[in-house]
C-alpha cells in the first residue's frame, strides 16, 4: 500500500557478475534504509536521496564515486545530478575528477549557483571554492575497475555489450512526509568512454527528473540511448497522461528499446508514494523502504519484502538465490 515517506534506490542496470550479487544487493538495501531513517526523522526528500547516493558512491561495488569505471585513458570522470520537485531546481556536474562525492557537489551547484550544470575543471574549481577536498585519483580506482578496463581495451570488446555486462550507476527517488519529491543519480559513466564523454546522468530530463506534481525518475543504462529518448521526462510524460508508475516505466523502457535498442532500468515514484523499479536488462539491484518494510530485488519480477527493523541480513546469494523461496523473506511479484 502506498504511504509516505518512501525512498527507492538502484545500483545500476546490467548483468551483475554472480560473485558481486550479494554485495550489490546489500549496498542498495543499506542505502535505502539510510535514506528512510532520514525521511522518518523529518528530513527532506532531497536530504534522503543525497544521503542514499553518497553511501552508494562510497561503496566500491558500484560505478559511482569510488569504484567508478575508467575512461579509455585510465582516468576517472564522473557525472551526477540532483533535482528538487518542489521548485524544479536542479544541479549537476559532468566529467568531474578527484571528487569523492559528486552528488554532493551537484547539490552545491543547485544551492549555491545560478547554473544547472558545471563541468570538468570549472566544476573542480567550484569544489575548491566550496571547501570540498580534492582526493587522490587512485583512491577512486579499485582493482576491479582496473581489471575491467584492461579486459575492455581488447580490440574485440563491444563497448555497449561489455558495459551492459557490469554496470553499477546509482540513483534514488524519494517522497518525504511533506509530500515533496526529489531524485539523485551518480555515475562513472560508460566503461572505456572517451575522455570528455558526458552521458545522460547530468542532463536534466535524461538522467533524472523530479516534479512534485508528477513524481520522480532516476534511470540507469546506456546513456546515449537514454538521452535520445529523454527517458526520465518521457516516463513522467506518460504519468501525466494518466499512466500508473509501472505502466509509464514499462512504456518508457519499451520506447527506448524500440527506437534506439537501448537497455536500462529506472526507479520511479509518484506524489502518493506509489513506486516501481523496472528494467529491461538482465538485472538491476534495487531496494525501497516504505511503511516500515524493506523491499528489494535484482532479477526480473523478483521482489522480496521484510521488516526494516529485522537485523538479520539474508543469506549471501547462491546459485538459486534469485528463486522466490528464500529464508524468512516474503516474495511477491507485484512490482
Ligand atoms: N547511464 C550511465 C551513463 O551512460 C551508465 C549507467 O547507467 O550504467 O553514463
Automatic annotation (TrEMBL):
EC numbers for this chain: 3.4.19.5, 3.5.1.1
Top-rank taxon, per record: Eukaryota
Keywords per UniProt: Autocatalytic cleavage, Hydrolase, Protease
Annotated site, Cleavage, chain positions: 168-169
Active-site annotation: 169
One Gene Ontology biological process: L-asparagine catabolic process via L-aspartate
Binding site for substrate: 197-200, 220-223
Reaction catalysis annotation: Cleavage of a beta-linked Asp residue from the N-terminus of a polypeptide; L-asparagine + H2O = L-aspartate + NH4(+)
GO cellular component: cytoplasm
GO terms of molecular function: asparaginase activity; beta-aspartyl-peptidase activity
Positions of the UniProt region annotated as Disordered: 307-335
Family: Belongs to the Ntn-hydrolase family.
Name of the featured protein: Isoaspartyl peptidase/L-asparaginase
Organism: Scleropages formosus
Amino acid at each position: 500500500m502506498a504511504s509516505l515517506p518512501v525512498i527507492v534506490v538502484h545500483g545500476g542496470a546490467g548483468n551483475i557478475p554472480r560473485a558481486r550479487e550479494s554485495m550489490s544487493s546489500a549496498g542498495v538495501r543499506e542505502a535505502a534504509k539510510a535514506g528512510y531513517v532520514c525521511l522518518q526523522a523529518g528530513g527532506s526528500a532531497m536530504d534522503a536521496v543525497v544521503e542514499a547516493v553518497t553511501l552508494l558512491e562510497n561503496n566500491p561495488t558500484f560505478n559511482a564515486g569510488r569504484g567508478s569505471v575508467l575512461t579509455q585513458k585510465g582516468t576517472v570522470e564522473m557525472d551526477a545530478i540532483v533535482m528538487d520537485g518542489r521548485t524544479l531546481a536542479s544541479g549537476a556536474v559532468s566529467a568531474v575528477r578527484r571528487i569523492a562525492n559528486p552528488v554532493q557537489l551537484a547539490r552545491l551547484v543547485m544551492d549555491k549557483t545560478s547554473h544547472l550544470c558545471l563541468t570538468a575543471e570549472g566544476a573542480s574549481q567550484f569544489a575548491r571554492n566550496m571547501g570540498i577536498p580534492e582526493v587522490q585519483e587512485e583512491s577512486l580506482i579499485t582493482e576491479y575497475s582496473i581489471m575491467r578496463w584492461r579486459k575492455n581495451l581488447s580490440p574485440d570488446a563491444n563497448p555497449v555489450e561489455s558495459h551492459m555486462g557490469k554496470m553499477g550507476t546509482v540513483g534514488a527517488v524519494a517522497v518525504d512526509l511533506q509530500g515533496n519529491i526529489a531524485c539523485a543519480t551518480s555515475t562513472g559513466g560508460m566503461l572505456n568512454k572517451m575522455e570528455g564523454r558526458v552521458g545522460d546522468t547530468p542532463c536534466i530530463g535524461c538522467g533524472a527528473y523530479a516534479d512534485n506534481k508528477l513524481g520522480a525518475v532516476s534511470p540507469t543504462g546506456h546513456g546515449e540511448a537514454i538521452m535520445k529518448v529523454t527517458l526520465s521526462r518521457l516516463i513522467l510524460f506518460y504519468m501525466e497522461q494518466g499512466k500508473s508508475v509501472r505502466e509509464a516505466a514499462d512504456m518508457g523502457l519499451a520506447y527506448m528499446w524500440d527506437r534506439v535498442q537501448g537497455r536500462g532500468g529506472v526507479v520511479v515514484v509518484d506524489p502518493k508514494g506509489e513506486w516501481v523499479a523496472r528494467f529491461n536488462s538482465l538485472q538491476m539491484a534495487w531496494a525501497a523502504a516504505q511503511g516500515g518494510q524493506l523491499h528489494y530485488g535484482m532479477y526480473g519480477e523478483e521482489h522480496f519484502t521484510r521488516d526494516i527493523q529485522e537485523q538479520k541480513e539474508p543469506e549471501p546469494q547462491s546459485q538459486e538465490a534469485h528463486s522466490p523461496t528464500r529464508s524468512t523473506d516474503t516474495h511477491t511479484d507485484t512490482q
